[in-house]
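I hope you will forgive my troubling you with a question about protein structure. Here, with my thanks, is the record as I have it:
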Amino acid sequence: MPLFVDILTIVLPVFLVIVLGYLLKRLELIDATFLYQTNRLVYYICLPLLLFYKIGTADFFANFNGALVIGSAMAIAAGFLLSYGYAALRGYPPAARGAFSQGAFRGNLAYMGLAIVFNAYGETGFTRAGILMGFLVPVLNLFAVLALLLPHRRSDGGQGAVFWVKQLVGNPLIIASFAGIAWSYLQLPVPVILDRSLHIATGMTLPLALIAIGGSFSLEKLKGDLVRAAFATGFKLIWLPLIAAGLLLLLGVGGQELAIGVLFAGTPTATATYIMAHQLKGDAELAGSIVMMSTALSAVTYTIALLMLRSFGL
């Protein structure tokens, strides 16, 4: 029982803030305009600042684990290949094939993953997770765009290539993460005034991110083929963490870093999958359903995953 209570103190605060966002939206204390602006603020300003600050002020050599990065990237690649192959074998139409595959492996590392890791493993875990995310975001974007473009490769008019480059080169999370990694690697000092300013400014990041998730949550988005959405959700929340755990163990990753890799693999599907499905000829209704379903069910799967990790002393 004490172990279960310990897990609840990790998982429940994250989801209670999400519920707060949902209630604020239903009570009309926030609206769609606020959520749109909040998402932009978090994505373009708050989260990049947070990543740069936490990574840049950390000891890179003490927190970087190459095997963790490689194993996590391999898990993403495996998720893409298995989900896309399954969708192709089942004869899913092109739009559904891309949305299904993307939803089955692209997790919400920035909003959900970092919040869960921070609650579970504190500042040290957060820093290691931030460095890991810096390397995984480009990999996720690469396979996400690939999943959506491949089904339409014969009819693509060229827009996809431009979008691909924009996603890989202009992503603020990638830029901030690698800037922080370079700052940490070179062991550059952070001036006291800048350090204190960043400490204040970055404190709003995770609360705003979770409120935005809750405010955007709507059962009305559960449309389209819910069976396909359920299969994608099951793959994302159950099979992908198991695949990641197996690969990381094979590469000799253990302890807290193994736990971070598993928790990152078990994140619910990223909201960006819905946006990208709209832009790259994917099934947006299916993508939205996967996001909603995986976000709701991740409260259960995260609790189970953390119970298992704690039982192994992680």
